[in-house]
Each structure stands twice: as structure tokens, then as C-alpha cells.
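Progress note, sequence design subtask.
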């Protein structure tokens, strides 16, 4: 990390970073690590979670625009989290928390079941080489993990600039019984709560179309 990022980590972690009990890996989450969102944020409010929050541009913008909601940024890269804390502090954003951990384990172990109102997966690593596509996040197992974390009626929002990954996302979620489409037509309209980040600009410059998807969690029986 840069000197500024190291300083932000040291000075702001107590305000923004959730301390996570670990399993074996450095970014793992222990099976008994569950938090109480009311204690973490100091209030009861709808929770929005972004997986792979990067440097936090989308989260900081969203949290600043909706102070009545709680936001959680999930990221495994420490430098991105440090940058997020620094920028959030400068913007006066106080309803944002961060966690340095693997996203599926955050959804499975850290957050209580049915506690998330919106789950965002924007521009995840496309693993675009054919031999690597099995590493992509959005697979049938992830759909079930996401469904367990979302409350009834909660929304899973996705965006990618890789057409074959967009098709895979749509195929996986169309086939997932806990979800139904929250859009009409082939693709969802661009989510107006998503700011344009470096990842989206890069894809656009390369001539790739940006595709959005949105799925609603069906009510539990």
C-alpha cells in the first residue's frame, strides 16, 4: 500500500472495518463469525452489500446518496479497502462498513440469513480465458448462497462488460429456483444507482457493451 493508504488503514479501520474471525486462510471467515447488523451500524436499516467493491467508488457514492441505508463493501485487496476508508472519511460517509474477506464466506457466515436487501456484483473478474472460466464467481452454488443471504423480495444486481459472462450469469440465475427476473426483455436497464467506475470505462473503451441484470428473491415458503 502507499503511505497514504497505510495511514488511512491505521487511522480509520476502527471506524469502518469489521473485525472478522478467520478460519485457515487470511481472507477466510470462521463458520461462527456471525455479526449483528444493528450492533455494527448502530441502527436497524436496509443493508446493501457490494461484492468486489474495489476502491469503493460505487459504495461511497451510494452510501452518501442514501444515508438512511446501511452499506457493506466486501473486498480482498487491502489497498482498495484503505482507499475506500480514506475517501469515505473525506466525503463524510458514516453508514458504510468494510470487510476484508472472501465474498461467499461473508454471505454464508458473517451476515445473518435473510439480512441483505440488495446484493451488488458489478464487473466481477471475468476470467475470460476458457480454461479459467470455472473460477468465475457467478455459478449455481453462488446463486444459492446469495438467495440465502437476501431477504424475501431482496434484489441481486449484476453488471459486466463481457458478453459470455453476462450470458452465463443470466443462465445461472434464470435456472435458480429462489430467483425471478426483475426486468423485462433481454437485459435489465442500467441501474441508475451504479456510478461509472474505471472498470466500466475500460470496457467501454474496448468497445464492449455493458450488460445489467437484476433478480428478485422469491418469498420463502
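Output:
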Amino acid at each position: 500500500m502507499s503511505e497514504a493508504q497505510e495511514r488511512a488503514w491505521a487511522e480509520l479501520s476502527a471506524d469502518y472495518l469489521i473485525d472478522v474471525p478467520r478460519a485457515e486462510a487470511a481472507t477466510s471467515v470462521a463458520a461462527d463469525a456471525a455479526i449483528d447488523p444493528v450492533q455494527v451500524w448502530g441502527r436497524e436499516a436496509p443493508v446493501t452489500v457490494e461484492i468486489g467493491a474495489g476502491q469503493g467508488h460505487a459504495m461511497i457514492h451510494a452510501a452518501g446518496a442514501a444515508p438512511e441505508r446501511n452499506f457493506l463493501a466486501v473486498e480482498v485487496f487491502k489497498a482498495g479497502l484503505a482507499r475506500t476508508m480514506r475517501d469515505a472519511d473525506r466525503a463524510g460517509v458514516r453508514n458504510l462498513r468494510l470487510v476484508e474477506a472472501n465474498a461467499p464466506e461473508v454471505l454464508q457466515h458473517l451476515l445473518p440469513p435473510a439480512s441483505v436487501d440488495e446484493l451488488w456484483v458489478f464487473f466481477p473478474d471475468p476470467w475470460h480465458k476458457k480454461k479459467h472460466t470455472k473460477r468465475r464467481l457467478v455459478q449455481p452454488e453462488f446463486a444459492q448462497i446469495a438467495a440465502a443471504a437476501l431477504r424475501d423480495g431482496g434484489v441481486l444486481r449484476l453488471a459486466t462488460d463481457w458478453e459470455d459472462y453476462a450470458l452465463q450469469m443470466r443462465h445461472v440465475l434464470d435456472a435458480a429456483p429462489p430467483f425471478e427476473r426483475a426486468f423485462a426483455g433481454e437485459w435489465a436497464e442500467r441501474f441508475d444507482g451504479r456510478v461509472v467506475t474505471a472498470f466500466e470505462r475500460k470496457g467501454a473503451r474496448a468497445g464492449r457493451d455493458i450488460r445489467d441484470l437484476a433478480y428478485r428473491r422469491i418469498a420463502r415458503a
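The chain has eight helices and seven strands. Work on this subtask will continue into the next period as scheduled.
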